[in-house]
């Protein structure tokens, strides 16, 4: 039986541009970019906590989506049930990932939580798209190749995110040298500012080259209006709704 988990990384994903609902009534793209990964993190919190409390006290979670590309969101329709569009879906899931990163860190300070952006990585991301979009993506990919980040580079950069002492948890447990991550040799600054602009705060929004995204006035505005709590409570409400529907479906199947 697994008793602890030191690190996990949830990659970004791509689905069709048209809204497609799951059996629980949630948009598939929204679910892949936000609800499913938040559920995954939530379910693994006990293992991450166990890792932070036992030697070498290292514990870290990374959600790879779009930190730094925040746009305004609709607080009256957070799950975009009535106002879905691909751009709105991106805006909502990015901003909501940001605030869940902060909320998880506040509740589990022995674990580092990161929301990162890989920029544009040349992969088979359009494989599930319509034929016309796959053809367009292939042509655009050829023209934009100089501006892409390679799979190897983004893999190495996220390995650094997953291990480096640049991004320590808010309150590391114990005195183990690895509790904050692997130290960078040569006297390089080893602590990055968290989402509150203070060094080593446990929640980090990171761009494609491992630098912290800074000076986001929109996020600051949203923090002042308590968006973290709003997103947290909304997300838990979705979990409860899905669990209830699942239980009702299981009960119906046995009757």
Q: Overview of this structure, please?
A:
The chain is α/β, with parallel strands linked by helices. It has one domain (7-121, 152-239). 44% of the residues lie in helices and 7% in strands. It has 6 helices and 4 strands; from the N terminus they run E-H-E-H-E-H-H-E-H-H. The chain has a 4-stranded parallel sheet, sandwiched between helices. Strand 1 (7-10), helix 1 (28-53) and strand 2 (60-64) form a beta-alpha-beta unit. Helix 1 (28-53) packs parallel to helix 2. It is globular and about 60 Å long. The two termini are 34 Å apart. 32% of the residues are buried. The model has no long low-confidence stretch (mean pLDDT 85).
Largest sheet: 4 strands, parallel
Number of strands: 4
SSE run: EHEHEHHEHH
Name the strands of the widest sheet in spatial order. 1-2-3-4
Q: Which structural class fits the helix and strand makeup?
A: alpha/beta
Number of DSSP helical runs: 6
Query: Share of helix among residues?
Result: 40-55%
* Dominant shape: globular
Strand content: 5-15%
What is this entry, summarized?
This protein has helices spanning 28-53, 86-107, 131-144, 151-163, 217-224, 227-254, and strands at 7-10, 60-64, 112-116, 203-206.
Question: Main traits of this protein?
Answer:
255 residues; alpha/beta; four-stranded parallel sheet; 6 helices; 4 strands
List the helices and strands and how they pair.
Blueprint: E1 7-10, H1 28-53, E2 60-64, H2 86-107, E3 112-116, H3 131-144, H4 151-163, E4 203-206, H5 217-224, H6 227-254
Parallel strand pairs: 1-2, 2-3, 3-4
Helix pairs in contact: 1-2, 2-6
């Amino acid at each position: 039986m697994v008793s602890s988990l030191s690190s996990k990384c949830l990659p970004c994903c791509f689905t069709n541009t048209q809204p497609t609902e799951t059996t629980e009534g949630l948009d598939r793209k929204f679910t892949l970019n936000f609800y499913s990964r938040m559920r995954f993190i939530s379910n693994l919190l006990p293992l991450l906590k166990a890792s932070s409390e036992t030697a070498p006290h290292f514990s870290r979670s990374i959600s790879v989506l779009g930190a730094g590309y925040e746009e305004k969101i609709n607080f009256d329709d957070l799950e975009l049930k009535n106002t879905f569009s691909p751009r709105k879906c991106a805006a909502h899931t990015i901003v909501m990932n940001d605030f869940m990163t902060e909320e998880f860190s506040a509740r589990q300070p022995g674990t580092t939580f990161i929301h990162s952006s890989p920029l544009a990585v040349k992969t088979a991301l359009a494989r599930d798209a319509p034929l016309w979009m796959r053809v367009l993506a292939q042509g655009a990919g050829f023209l934009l190749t100089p501006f892409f980040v390679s799979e190897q580079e983004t893999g190495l950069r996220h390995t650094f995110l997953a291990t480096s002492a640049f991004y320590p948890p808010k309150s590391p447990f114990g005195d183990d040298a690895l509790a904050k991550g692997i130290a960078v040799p040569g006297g390089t600054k080893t602590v990055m500012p968290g989402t509150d602009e203070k060094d080593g705060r446990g929640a980090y929004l990171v761009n494609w080259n491992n630098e912290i995204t800074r000076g986001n006035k929109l996020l600051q505005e949203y923090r002042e209006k308590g968006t973290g709590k709003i997103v947290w409570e909304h997300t838990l409400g979705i979990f409860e709704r899905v669990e209830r529907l699942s239980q009702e479906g299981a009960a119906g199947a046995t009757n």
